[in-house]
């Protein structure tokens, strides 16, 4: 199958060719004709499947072929996204796919000043990619009106609901023209998403390219069990042992992000961070530097988890498991994109057994477990089953035996030597040796 056989016009075919896309991905093969037909679409597609071109190419074509030119403070295609990063990324995709088409594009999101966005909206834009809160702000200021909206796209709809945008979304739906095309893309289909879809889609064409909630099959995934206090040391050990020098690293808290980033920095890696408290320009800069390879390790909280388009990322390391199982799917969706193979490693401690069980139930597989010699968990991680059960109750952790050696020093770290965010980690049962000392010369100039 070729892009030409899907009915795309020449300028779009040229742009696709220039991007070196040879054949449509499965979601593109299904979505492009569906969107071109003007019908509503509900698509179960993860990031990495090529879904962006699946809706952007046919929408660009419809913008060129139909409808009056956009008027001032109006928008013809409205794309709603959960995060600022995704908004920027989709804007870049629309610009690339729509090169030479004489259409206007804009991304509008919070955390940056309203004024430049208001100025750009004055002339009207053909495609506005926006986060829900900022869109409503702009609408309240009369900077954008919705009467010319011909298509609404909800990208990563599940994530928008997870982030608590339900109220904003309903306010936007209520303000849009009833006569419109609506496209809903989501990696997972919870009852909430289905409920929303039932409210806003009319006789949609359903597209599913991989079973909902399945993780990309080419991603090699496994779990390394470890005690919580030894996670930072194990992480650094695995990174050094395996020569992992380009990875997206997920940590639960902002403090944890800063802590690991400092360890990596000390060990000589070029590292940057993304988390919610970081100003937007700094977050985008970190992402850009990581994409370009100027940064080897990008340490992030879930803010970065969805929809970021990072090509050829071989490795995702979950130092902490996400609280919400779906986020695991989104996190590891960064690897194994468009057919490439990837690796996703998760460091799991006993406390995280329920999260692990929920993830395994969601992806319908039991993740293989490993232990790293020298980092064996004292607090065993209970067995889980792929139905989301914890098979055996965790044994009550035994009181660690304190073996007195000749010097009288204890071999097991005591409570008050355990690592805290912001302090150096306590020594694990075996301190990783050698490779990290003095760094590995990996820092980029
Ligand atoms: P997406 O799922 O839309 O974020 O796309 C994932 C990645 O696949 C992006 O880097 C796209 O540039 C790339 N891509 C999309 N469609 C194709 C295609 N037909 N052939 C090769 N790469 C593609």
UniProtKB/TrEMBL annotation:
GO terms for molecular function: ATP binding; ATP hydrolysis activity; nucleic acid binding; RNA helicase activity. The gene is rhlE_2. This is DEAD-box ATP-dependent RNA helicase RhpA. Residues 1-29 form the DEAD-box RNA helicase Q domain. Transmembrane segments: none annotated. Pfam families: DEAD, Helicase_C. It catalyses: ATP + H2O = ADP + phosphate + H(+). Residues 218-380 form the Helicase C-terminal domain. Keywords: ATP-binding, Cytoplasm, Helicase, Hydrolase, Nucleotide-binding. A motif (Q motif) lies at residues 1-29. The keyword Nucleotide-binding applies. Residues 371-381 have a biased composition (Basic and acidic residues). Residues 392-401 have a biased composition (Basic residues). The lineage of its organism: Bacteria, Pseudomonadati, Pseudomonadota, Betaproteobacteria, Burkholderiales. One of its GO terms (biological process) is ribosome assembly. It is an enzyme of class 3 (hydrolase). Its EC number is 3.6.4.13. Residues 32-207 form the Helicase ATP-binding domain.
